UniProtKB/TrEMBL annotation:
UniProt xrefs under InterPro entries: PQQ_b-propeller_rpt, PQQ_rpt_dom, Quinoprotein_ADH-like_sf, WD40/YVTN_repeat-like_dom_sf
Taxonomic path: Bacteria, Bacillati, Actinomycetota, Actinomycetes, Micromonosporales
Signal peptide (residue range): 1-22
UniProt keyword list: Signal
Organism: Actinoplanes missouriensis (strain ATCC 14538 / DSM 43046 / CBS 188.64 / JCM 3121 / NBRC 102363 / NCIMB 12654 / NRRL B-3342 / UNCC 431)
Protein name: Pyrrolo-quinoline quinone repeat domain-containing protein
Pfam family, one: PQQ_2
Domain Pyrrolo-quinoline quinone repeat: 78-221, 243-343
Lineage: superkingdom: Bacteria
PANTHER family: CELL SURFACE PROTEIN (PTHR34512), OUTER MEMBRANE PROTEIN ASSEMBLY FACTOR BAMB (PTHR34512:SF30)
Length: 362
């Protein structure tokens, strides 16, 4: 074997594996932080391709894409599709007849979708092969369903069977029901190291185990999760009055409180990024103290951190802000963004959607 070939093989082995973005918010903790993204830079970044994400039925709504093991998963006109992230070409397409997509997640080789019928009378939880798009199992949910998260082999859905509040856990492998907690709401449904924070009747809350539904701790406060830290050791919560609070996910003890309202946060190990009016604020994760802020051209959406960069959408078509995630200094940006659709950054690529078109930049 030539020395040139050996050097090429060694270089390939030393490259980091492509990063994934397998659920809305990156993973089950909804941190909106991809620490594994190390290849995307703002040098010479440009739009490479663009596709439509929904079709003619009024009930179809485009969703933010997911990246998993080298494929891009997205809503598509009339169904759901896997694309080549480099070209936008379809690898497979599965039709969804008169259904819209509420949530998607990819785990253990399965694409899981939470869909609703166009007549508004029902919802379905469905698993497809991530490799082929073949349908593996489907569960009718019997009423509206608002949110979904996948963790530790369990698909958890905030459901309304017969329009009664409940949170239900299903087995990822075959869709079998594992547990149901009636009278709970999964507002801000996410998993902090296998723990869910659910609102309960009487304006109280409790943390439960994602695999069993067993209660871990309870609080008389009306908390709901707006984020978690990458280690899953904290919930970042809001509640009555909207003030942001950092909570120990294991026992519910308060770490710090802020007077700052926060409908959502982005969290790395040392910082929080909070959308606020036409700005993004950076807070010290240890204390909640403000470190710096970035002004945006319009109303702030959910920021995303990937590698050393912070991506902040704003308004409806306003330029995307890209700054250094540590200092807040401007780096690049300018692509059209939408405050309702956080960017997806994985595999050395930036994906932006407005619910109508999906665009790839790299």
């Amino acid at each position: 074997m030539s020395s040139v070939l050996v050097a090429a093989v060694v270089a390939a082995l030393l490259l980091p594996p492509p990063s994934d973005w397998a659920q809305p918010g990156y993973g089950p903790g909804a941190t909106y932080y991809n620490p594994a993204e190390t290849t995307l830079t703002t040098e010479n970044i440009g739009k490479k391709w663009e596709v439509s994400t929904h079709g003619a039925p009024d009930c179809e709504i485009g969703r933010e894409p997911l990246v998993y093991r080298g494929s891009l998963y997205t809503s598509a006109p009339g169904g759901v599709a896997a694309l080549d992230p480099a070209t936008g070409n379809r690898r497979w397409f599965t039709r969804l007849v008169r259904r819209g997509i509420t949530r998607m997640a990819v785990a253990d080789g399965k694409l899981v979708t939470l869909t609703y019928t166009c007549d508004g009378q029902g919802s379905f939880l469905t698993a497809f092969s991530a490799a082929t798009g073949g349908r593996l199992w489907e569960v009718p949910l019997g009423g509206p369903a608002q949110d979904m998260v996948v963790d530790r082999g369990v698909v958890v859905v905030d459901t309304r069977p017969d329009y009664t509040l409940s949170t239900t856990g299903y087995r990822l492998g075959d869709g079998g029901r594992l547990w149901r907690l009636t009278g709970t709401r999964g507002d801000g449904l996410l998993s902090a190291n296998g723990r869910l924070l659910l609102r309960t009747e009487g304006n109280t809350a409790r943390a439960v185990d994602v695999t069993t539904g067993r209660t871990i701790w309870q609080t008389p406060l009306n908390w709901y999760a707006v984020g978690s830290d990458p280690a899953g050791s904290r919930f970042y919560v809001s509640g009555t009055g909207g003030a942001l609070t950092a909570v120990n996910a294991a026992d519910g003890s308060v770490i710090w409180r802020s007077a700052l309202p926060a409908p959502g946060v982005t969290a790395d190990d040392r910082r929080l990024y909070v959308p606020r009016y036409r700005s993004v604020l950076c807070l010290d994760a240890a204390t909640g103290r403000k470190l710096w802020s970035v002004h945006l051209p319009d109303a702030a959406g959910q920021p995303v951190r990937a590698g050393n960069l912070l991506f902040s959408p704003s308004g409806l078509g306003s330029p995307l802000s890209i700054v250094d995630a540590v200092t807040g200094r401007g780096v690049h940006g300018g692509m059209p963004s939408d405050q309702h659709y956080p960017p997806t950054v994985a595999g050395g690529r930036l994906f932006l959607t407005d619910g109508d078109r999906l665009r790839a930049y790299f």
